[in-house]
Fold:
Amino acid sequence: MILSPPAILALSLVLPGGAATAAEISSDDSVGTLDAPIRAYLDRKAAAESAAGIYVSKLVRGDIDGNGKADAYVSYSLESASGGNFTLLYEALFVVEKDQLVFKAERDNGSSGTAQGESFSPKRIEAGRILGEILAYAPDDGACCPSIKRAASVSYAGGKLGAAVKKAD
Structure:
């Protein structure tokens, strides 16, 4: 699969020690424009983790809480400030309150660059859950490309996102 060049949004952040630097939030073209509350949250997260950059891989919208408004679920990675291919993966939920997206919860989503473990890739929000698939590595997979995919969902209850649960066969 060939992807078009990523869209780049330049943001500024302050790293430990007070040195200001330009950080980039890049995303797959399918993500589209990020809402201001999402961009601001990602900027704060990058600063807190001393990340060199952020890559937004997925943004899905749908009604998670039954109020009829389009909430947002974003999958992103923090690129290491120390270099290398290892990145931490996260997902965050933003719910519409008073016509504005508000951060509600976050979950760790594994890591990339090791060809081990698994991560969740969201597809849509439906019936109070985030539906998608778990991506996992087969023994001969490269670090870029997990080949095992299985339907799964993430729940949101009590202000928290649950672990990705595989759909029963």
Summary: The longest helix spans residues 36-48. The first strand starts at residue 7 and ends at 14. The radius of gyration is 16 Å.
